[in-house]
Amino acid sequence: MSASGFAAVLTRMKIVTASSTDSGLSSALGVSPQTLSSWKVRDSVPYSICIELALRHGLSLDWLLLGEGPQLRGQPAQACVSEVQLLEQLRTLHPLDLQAITLAVQEKHRLRELEQQVQALNQQLHAKA
């Protein structure tokens, strides 16, 4: 684990345990301040401690260790929530409305593709100039 990654993991651990200091974190984790200090020297936290903390607080290990995804286990990422809501709304529409939306989406994709082609051509022209 890189030093910056390790520091970020410690910061997330402090957030979860509501600790503002290393001493408070060591107490919340049930380890001595010397143990926490040795983790800092090695830039490493035992995974067993991370797993125990994640289980105790319902945390996602992706969030705790990598800072990615939702903080809580089982909590869908925001994009997934939006997709689910959109799908629920689409299911309530009349088939003709769904067809019109499908055509509009296809047209939007075609326009985006054309815009990208025009942008690429413009870049080529400016590169030659």
Automatic annotation (TrEMBL):
<dbReference type="InterPro" id="IPR010744">
    <property type="entry name" value="Phage_CI_N"/>
</dbReference>
<feature type="domain" description="Bacteriophage CI repressor N-terminal">
    <location>
        <begin position="8"/>
        <end position="70"/>
    </location>
</feature>
<dbReference type="Pfam" id="PF07022">
    <property type="entry name" value="Phage_CI_repr"/>
</dbReference>
<protein>
    <submittedName>
        <fullName>Helix-turn-helix domain containing protein</fullName>
    </submittedName>
</protein>
<dbReference type="InterPro" id="IPR010982">
    <property type="entry name" value="Lambda_DNA-bd_dom_sf"/>
</dbReference>
